[in-house]
Design goal:
alpha/beta, five-stranded mixed sheet, 11 strands, about 45% helix
Length: about 400
């Protein structure tokens, strides 16, 4: 702990300038470092500290240091599922007054919801993320609107001996929980009730499990479905084996770079719905910026966080890293039009987005779901639903063993 704190640097920098330690996910695009450089002023320097690559490792490092009252941490990049836990533990500061007004002005509703707990704003939405349906227009002239339609299309392509796989995250991790949550929300339901005190699964959850099972048993399923995550999906699509991919915007610049020929037919549409006449409600992702309770420079940290998520820096993050902005006005800007051609599709998805269950017990709930639905081929819709319901009730009551 002390070694890590020493490496990060804290307090005053050279010439009396304060160093603000900013902890966020490791970014290879250069967008975060560029923002940190641009937002540094004569009063403070923003030092970008990279957290571990995986979300679990990121959370673990932040939790351990905050639980120890580490004052070397100022600005924290939080996954959109951590706010309730961190706020309930008293580790992050609420945004109030002028800071709250600046954080919420022009910001999309769904990202604000991820940063809110018990009616208080605890972070500023930094970037967002949502999945689209990516498909090959040379194989599928018109994209499907529902999961049933997409699976049927893939099965027909398989009969014709053409690339036909549907790439989706099926491994036992957060990605498969996101898939389940998106299907439940798209079927008109939710995992928990509005107050996050009870399960609220029912017929929508059963329908979600039936769809997951149908895909797993279909020739449309990738043989590696049970171990696939986002990057494996990307590689499978780029190799030419798949017709459909449910994934985040980072796959677009990657396809252009790795397979320019296939990129000409690499198109996008809204994530498939469950019901033909209802839009999908895809689970929102992204990062929110919170200010540590233990920061010795909170006033400066609030100002720096607002700069880090400014209009200019969100455009850079979108173009360089493929991360969707949280400021609604950016989706009509010329800056995004050329390098982010699917921006309107992203905006539509974000306006219809769902959020993951907002509860301090979210990590346990996610583990319950991911262990119950992966591998997808093992799903028995009715019995799996009973298992999920029972184990989530135990998690909410802080009893029982988490799988």
């Amino acid at each position: 702990m002390l070694a890590a704190a020493g490496l990060s640097g804290c307090g005053s920098g050279s010439g009396g300038r304060t160093t603000l330690s900013f902890y966020n996910f490791p970014d290879n695009s250069g967008a975060i470092q560029q923002a940190a450089n641009d937002c540094s002023t004569s009063k403070y320097k923003i030092s970008y500290n990279k957290l571990p690559t995986d979300a679990d490792g990121q959370r673990q490092q932040l939790v351990r240091r905050l639980a120890a009252g580490d004052s070397s941490m100022d600005i924290l990049g939080l996954d959109v599922t951590w706010e309730a836990e961190f706020a309930e533990a008293g580790w992050i500061r609420a945004w109030t007054g002028a800071n709250k007004a600046a954080a919420t002005q022009g910001t999309l509703k769904a990202p604000i919801e991820t940063a809110t707990w018990k009616g208080k704003l605890y972070a500023v939405p930094y970037n967002s993320n949502t999945q689209l349906l990516w498909y090959r227009s040379d194989l599928v002239p018109k994209p499907p609107k529902t999961w049933d339609e997409m699976i049927s299309m893939a099965e027909q392509l398989a009969k014709q001996g053409k690339p036909h796989l549907i790439e989706i995250q099926g491994a036992q991790y957060e990605g498969v929980t996101v898939w389940f949550n998106s299907l439940v929300a798209s079927a008109g339901g939710s995992i928990l009730n509005a107050s996050a005190t009870k399960t609220s699964l029912g017929p929508p959850a059963l329908k979600a499990l039936q769809i997951m099972k149908r895909l797993a048993d279909s020739p449309a399923a990738d043989p590696s479905l049970s171990v696939q995550q986002e990057d494996q999906n990307r590689l499978a699509m780029e190799s030419g084996k798949a017709a459909f991919e449910l994934n985040y915007p980072f796959v677009y610049p990657s396809m252009k770079a790795d397979n320019p020929k296939l990129a000409k037919n690499f198109k996008w549409a809204q994530y498939p719905g469950v019901n033909a006449n209802e839009p999908s409600h895809v689970t929102i992702g992204g990062i929110d910026l919170a200010i540590s309770k233990y920061s010795k420079h909170a006033d400066l940290a609030f100002k720096a966080a607002l700069c880090l998520r400014s209009r200019k820096n969100q455009i850079v993050a979108a173009v360089k890293g493929g991360l969707p902005p949280t400021l609604e006005s950016l989706y009509g800007s010329k800056e995004l039009a050329k390098d982010y051609p699917f921006h309107q599709a992203i905006l539509t998805a974000l306006k219809n987005a769902s959020v993951r269950p907002k509860t301090p017990a979210y990590q346990n709930i996610s583990i319950v779901v991911s262990h119950s639905v992966s591998p997808p081929a093992s799903i028995n819709p009715k019995s799996t639903l009973k298992t999920i319901d029972s184990q989530i009730k135990d998690a909410l009551a802080s009893k029982g063993l988490i799988p």
